[in-house]
Structure formats: C-alpha cells, structure tokens
Write a structure and sequence with these properties.
Helix content is 56%, strand content 1%. By secondary structure, the protein is an all-alpha fold. A two-stranded antiparallel ribbon has the order 1-2.
Length: 416
C-alpha cells in the first residue's frame, strides 16, 4: 500500500470510528467503499494499512507524526512529512523510499566533482549495496532478522538506515566540493562537528597520496560502518519522533531499549549481508567504469589475511560502534545532539542539514568522557580503514580510474 493510500485509510478509519469529525474528501470516501465494514480496533487499523502488528499502538500518541514504515513506501512516495503539523521547514518525518535512495545516490555519483574520479568510488558501491540491502530488509519472511517483527525495532532500523544515507551524502558532497580539499590541502573538519572530519580526512589523503578507487571505497566503507554508524546510533535516542506513543520518554530509557536483545538481533543481522557484499563492491566499480580487471573473488579471499571471514570482521567493528554509539547517546546533554534539531512542535527531530550541524558539546564541564568516546569512535574508523585497505591494495595495486580512458569511463558512468 502506498503512503498516500495508507494515509487515506487512516483518515477514513478515524472518521468512521469516531476519532475524527471533519468531512472526508471524495478520495477518502472511495477508500471507505473499498474498506467495507472493517472493524474499529488497533489491530484492524494495522491490517487495513498493511502494517506490522503493534504499529498502531506505538503510533497512537497525539499528532504522532511518526514516519511511515520504509517497506510500506511506494516508489513515488513524497519526500515530505507524513504528519505535517509544523511550520519548521527543516522538520522531516518521512523516509526516502528505496527508489528515492537510488535516485539521490546516483545523482550525486554522476555530478561534479564526483563522476570519473576516485572520490566517487564509494557512491558507486553504495548505490548497489543499498539497493540489495533495501530489497533484503523488506523481505517479510519469518526467518529474516533484517525485517523485524517488533514495530519499534522496525522503526529504529528504518530511521538508522535513512539517517545514515542522507547524512553521508551531505557530508561527502561537502568534503569533496571543498576547494581546499580538492587541492589536497591539509584541511580537516573538527571531529566534534558531527565527526564529519573522518570523511574529509579521507578525501584529503586520497588527493595527497593519489589513492585508487578501491582504496577510497574501502576507506569510506570503514568510516561508514564505524564512525558514521556510531554517531547515527547515538542520535536515535535523542530523536523524539521515533519514541512517540511509547513509555521510553527519556534518553536513558531509550538507550536501555536499544540494548535489548531484540534490537541487537536486527542490528547484527546486517553483518552477514555486509560480509557477502564485497563482490558487489568490485562489480559496481567495474560497471561504473571506475576500475578495470576487477578480480572480485581474489579480493574477497584476501580478507582471510585479516584472520576472519568478512562477516565476522565487519561484525566485530560494528559491535564496537554499537557500544560506543549508545555510550555517546548517554553522555550528550538533552536536546544537544548535533544530528537533531528542535521543531515547532517542541520535539527533537532528525536534522535536515547535517553539514551545518553544531559541534558536540565537548567544552562543557564534565564532558571529558564524551570527548574520549568521540576520539575512540574516530580511532575505530581509522583502524578499520587500515585493516581493509592493506589486503585490497596488495590484490589490486594501483589499478585506478586515472589509468582508464576518460571517455570510456563517462560512457559507462552514464548507463550505471
């Protein structure tokens, strides 16, 4: 069911069940005809809207404004608030649909200053990986842990993915578009600025040391799955929209809920997927014209030099990100997380413009523990980047887009 249809169903059910008194539109009345004599109950609401059992209960707060579940979004779902009750233009309560995720990534990949340069390597890999990921997490098979049955786990899972994608694209664009970075100057954003510095540092080094596309892709993967992930996890506990209708009304309660086995099981379910996606990275770079002669199986086997299967390697690092992210969430003062902002309704929402986010409040008294955790997160990203880069560099050497014919790359990129 599309987002618009679900909204019409909800409005009509509210009208019919005495929860809404306004006059229904013609479109809504047509939905009423289709609904027939559906019963008035939360369970019936869920069935009518195609939602997981229990969703209605946690979305029943006043002006809940919670996002539609990702897997319920249609391909042309609007990039607007599901329950637009605020005059704050920066408040967004809906997720990008799977097709919108692809559109946004590919548009950035093919634009200046990315395109046929090593800086676009992770975008090409990311487009393929998110496409596979979103298909996998919307598989409603009972055994698919990537598709949680608990509605709150599902909401947190959706928000985590959406927040990471939107914010990564903004940060990458800001870093690569920075003229000082493009000249290879030693310009590094403070890691207190929402830890954007990790990605900017990477692109500075790529210019200074003439990195090939695979090394940029692996380095970006490392920071995305450690530094970036930890900050996003910490932001979930400070985003009020996600907890409407629940009893988790404080950050400590929310962090404790995120430590629950049910959410950790969903989180861990992505480890195997990531480990199996390494061949996707090589294929994506080859298809986009960013790499040639990609012996993908050889690259994947080289991970054995790390001492563990790829899924275990990623899992170990993501475990560290999980622990540090929740620890950061507990230490950030209320209403001060840089990835959130206050809306006109008084709630803290996911921040729309992450590049202009304020710093983590590490200068306040008693903030030394927060600073230490942020330093630890940054160090984890660097550690994983080095661990991934070494075996892949041995496997591929300096095979980079700069050795390819630019015209051939542009032709491939156009159809990617």
């Amino acid at each position: 069911m599309s987002q618009t249809q679900a909204l019409m169903v909800r409005v009509e059910r509210s009208r019919r069940c005495g929860r809404w008194r306004a006059v229904a539109s013609v479109a809504v009345m047509s939905v009423a005809v289709m609904m027939g004599g559906a019963a008035c109950s939360p369970a019936a609401d869920e069935a009518a809207e195609g939602l997981r059992p229990g969703t209605a209960a946690i979305a029943s707060g006043s002006n809940a404004g919670v996002p539609m579940p990702f897997c319920s979004l249609s391909a042309n779902a609007p990039n607007t608030a599901f329950n637009a009750g605020s005059d704050n233009a920066n408040v967004r309560l809906s997720y990008w649909s799977a097709s919108e995720v692809q559109r946004q990534i590919l548009a950035q990949l093919k634009s200046e200053p990315f395109g046929c340069t090593p800086h676009s390597a992770y975008l090409a890999a990311y487009a393929r990986m998110t496409k596979d990921r979103d298909k996998a997490r919307c598989d409603a098979s009972p055994t698919n842990a990537m598709h949680p049955s608990d509605p709150l786990d599902a909401r947190l899972n959706d928000a985590l993915a959406d927040m990471m994608t939107r914010n990564y694209l903004q940060i990458a664009n800001a870093c690569v578009s920075n003229k000082e970075v493009s000249r290879g100057a030693d310009v590094r954003s403070s890691r207190t600025q929402a830890l954007q510095g990790a990605f900017c540092d990477l692109h500075v080094r790529a210019n200074q040391e003439n990195w090939n596309t695979l090394r940029v892709a692996m380095g970006s993967t490392a920071y995305y799955l450690s530094t970036h992930l930890a900050v996003a996890l910490s932001a979930l506990a400070h985003t009020d929209d996600l907890w409407v209708g629940t009893d988790f009304d404080t950050v400590p309660k929310r962090v404790e809920r995120m430590r629950a086995p049910s959410f950790k099981k969903v989180y861990d379910a992505f480890n195997g997927f990531l480990g199996n996606s390494l061949t996707t990275v090589g294929q994506a770079l080859e298809d986009a014209g960013l790499m040639r002669n990609a012996d993908r199986l050889k690259a994947a086997s080289k991970l054995a030099e790390l001492g563990s299967p790829a899924g275990v390697v990623f899992g170990n690092r993501r475990d560290v990100a999980y622990k540090l992210g929740l620890a950061i969430a507990e230490l950030v003062p209320l209403r001060s997380h840089p990835w959130t902002q206050e809306g006109a309704d008084g709630r803290m929402h996911m921040r729309e413009n992450i590049v202009q986010a304020p710093a983590f409040p590490v200068t306040k008294p008693g903030a030394s523990a927060l600073q230490q955790h942020l330093d630890d997160v940054a160090a984890e990203g660097a550690k994983l980047a080095a661990a991934l880069a070494n075996p892949f560099m041995q496997a591929f050497g300096n095979d980079t887009v700069t050795t390819l014919d630019a015209e051939a790359c542009r032709a491939k990129m156009g159809s990617f």
